[in-house]
């Protein structure tokens, strides 16, 4: 009962946060600007949804194959069809309840492929760890190749915090701060290991490390890393295709797509289904490239609606087809 109450409170909190961010992103828009945003969405080139849908589904299919590679050392070789359906339905269920998708993903595959759920959950740890690293690489690429643009934005917005001379002495101070922070966190995690929150944090960090180290036992390491790159490359291509849907952003290239992928992926974690946070992240990102707030918010809504509706549409169809394509096993 306590877990259900906590889950309900978490769902309400993150959904409420998303609604607050929706209000925050549009609070200063006039009636004319709201009409302009509505017309921008209605006047989009909707044919772009076809190649974009193919690209995003290809990324999910690649994720299913990567999951199969993780199962091989455990002695499981489920069908690619059922693995792909389980992956797609995990996104669908995550829209309904946070983290429900991970549970259903393993439960469905266990039901139709006769695989133990506990071992399938272990493979998800490695998946999560690889996704964290992949997102870190995407953010790093975004920073490295757009350091001037992002640096100018940081100086404009936070110049009062960045108004110092960067010399060897400053570099040493920054290094000492990082080292001191690392050892302080380490001491804190060990000294107060009995606290529930600290235990949870250590469990998460331990899980990421276990997931990373388990990759060395894979028989198809090259294929695993190929699919890890391919998944995020398809995410990037989907956003780049999305630029073609609106006249105001069609001139943008690959690096703005990198920036949206970086901050948009972080925003998807903040609220339920990314609602509110994703639109705001895209809006603020596009201002870096000279796109006004109204058009930026419209494009954020366009991207979010496309991805959400794609998951809902495919999720409902696959949920109906799954039992028809398989005979349940005990």
Short description:
With 330 residues, this protein is mainly α. Helices cover 79% and strands 0% of the residues.
Any overview of this molecule?
- With 330 residues, this protein is an all-alpha fold.
- The chain has one domain (24-163, 219-325).
- The protein is built from 13 helices and no strands.
- The protein has helices at 2-26, 31-42, 49-71, 80-96, 100-113, 117-145, 147-162, 168-191, 196-214, 221-242, 254-270, 277-287, 293-325.
- Helix 6 (117-145) crosses helix 9, helix 6 packs across helix 11 and helix 11 packs antiparallel against helix 12 (277-287).
- It is globular.
- The chain starts with a helix and ends in a 5-residue tail after the last helix.
Low-confidence stretches: 158-162
In round numbers, the mean pLDDT is 78
Counting DSSP H or I runs of 4 or more residues, the number of helices is: 13
Approximate helicity band: over 70%
Structural class: mainly alpha
Strand content bin: under 5%
Task: Give the overall form.
Answer: globular
Question: How many domains comprise the coordinates?
Answer: 1
**Through-space gap between termini:** 29 Å
Order of helices and strands: HHHHHHHHHHHHH
Q: Got a strand count?
A: 0
Largest sheet: none
Overall radius of gyration: 22 Å
Defining key terms:
330 residues, mainly alpha, globular
């Amino acid at each position: 009962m306590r877990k259900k109450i906590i889950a309900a409170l978490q769902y309400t909190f993150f959904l409420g946060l998303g609604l607050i961010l929706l209000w925050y992103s549009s609070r200063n828009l006039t009636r004319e600007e709201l009409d302009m945003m509505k017309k921008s969405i209605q006047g989009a080139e909707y044919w772009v949804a076809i190649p974009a849908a193919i690209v995003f589904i290809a990324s999910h299919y690649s994720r299913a194959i990567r999951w199969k590679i993780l199962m091989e050392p455990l002695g499981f070789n489920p069908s690619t069809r059922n693995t792909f359906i389980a992956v797609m339905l995990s996104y669908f269920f995550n829209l309904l309840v946070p983290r429900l998708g991970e549970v259903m993903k393993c439960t469905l595959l266990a039901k139709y492929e006769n695989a133990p759920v506990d071992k399938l959950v272990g493979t998800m740890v490695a998946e999560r760890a690889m996704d964290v690293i992949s997102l870190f690489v995407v953010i790093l690429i975004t920073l490295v190749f757009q350091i001037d643009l992002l640096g100018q934005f940081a100086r404009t917005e936070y110049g009062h915090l960045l108004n110092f001379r960067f010399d060897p002495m400053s570099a040493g101070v920054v290094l000492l701060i990082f080292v001191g922070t690392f050892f302080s966190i380490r001491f804190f995690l060990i000294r107060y290991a009995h606290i529930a929150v600290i235990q949870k944090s250590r469990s998460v960090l331990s899980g990421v490390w276990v997931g990373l180290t388990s990759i060395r036992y894979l028989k198809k390491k090259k294929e695993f890393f190929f699919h890890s790159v391919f998944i995020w490359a398809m995410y990037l291509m989907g956003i780049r295709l999305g630029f073609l849907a609106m006249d105001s952003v069609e001139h943008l290239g690959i690096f703005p797509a990198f920036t949206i992928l970086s901050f948009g992926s972080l925003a998807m974690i903040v609220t339920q289904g990314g609602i509110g946070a994703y639109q705001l992240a895209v809006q603020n990102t596009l201002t870096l490239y000279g796109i006004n707030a109204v058009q930026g918010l419209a494009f954020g809504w366009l991207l979010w609606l496309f991805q959400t509706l794609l998951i809902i549409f495919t999720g409902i169809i696959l949920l109906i087809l799954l039992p028809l394509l398989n005979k349940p096993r005990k």
